[in-house]
Amino acid sequence: MAARAAAVAAGEEPAVPLEPAATVVLVRPTADGGVEAYVQRRHRGLAFAGGVYAFPGGRVDPADADLPDGLWGGPSPAEWARRFAEADESQARAHVAGLVRELYEETGVLLAQGSPRLPAESDRVAVAEGRRHLREVLQAHGLRVDTDVLTPWARWVTPRFERRRFDAWFFLAALPRGQQPRVATAESHDGRWVRPAEAVAAAEAGEMPMLPPTWWTLRQVAEAATVEQAAAHPPPMVRYTVGWTRRDGEVLLVLPDDPDYPGLDPREGT
Fold first, then answer.
1. CA 72: distance to chain centroid?
2. What pLDDT does 189 receive?
3. Partner of 166 at 20 to 30 A CA spacing, among 35, 99, 213, 239?
4. Fold designation for 18-241
5. Strands 239-241 and 150-157: what pairing?
6. Confidence label for 88 from pLDDT (cuts 50, 70 and 90)
7. 51: closest CA among 201, 221, 214?
């Protein structure tokens, strides 16, 4: 990784293009009024982030941008583009629709307005297997994507030296009433609700491996006393990346609060 980082920084190797992705911090209140977040552990054999705890989400598909206005509820794609900054309406439509689809595929939780009855499990499986698109399921059941429940949180850009790179939009959403997430695909296992501060401490102790964006986001959510407070007071919209620096002869990855953090290279967005 260090050699690759140095080669990319020197212009000796090209950076891999970014792919669009979206993820959601699904939260619910605890019995004492606090906050819990839902995470799943990805299987070790996966090419990207194998073996780590992560929020539900994944790659945005080109077809996600085709969700029609009639199946859209809440703030418009143009408004979501404004909230995420440096994005256009087409990007916003794809990221939000992709997030709803990925959450549905991976956990069975569907962020939708309309009928109180959810689609059958066979519908979710068909979407996850690519035999049906989410818009077909929504149309068949008289539903619309519910973007009212989403809170924009951050954008994380994979560093230029990584061989798999994503422009990942992070959202926060309260668990819809009457729904419960579960591990619904073979990508993950060990789905669990965690108190953000406890998960951060477990990660720092080496007990819950997670990528820096997950750790950073949980640390931010831990500052909220309630689910309502987290949704009402998100951090300022920032585009983050993991930086790197040389220290004592070693190349180290650093986060934005590290004094050696180099700042976001303008090229990170490409």
1. 20
2. 81
3. 35
4. Nucleoside Triphosphate Pyrophosphohydrolase (3.90.79)
5. parallel
6. very high
7. 214
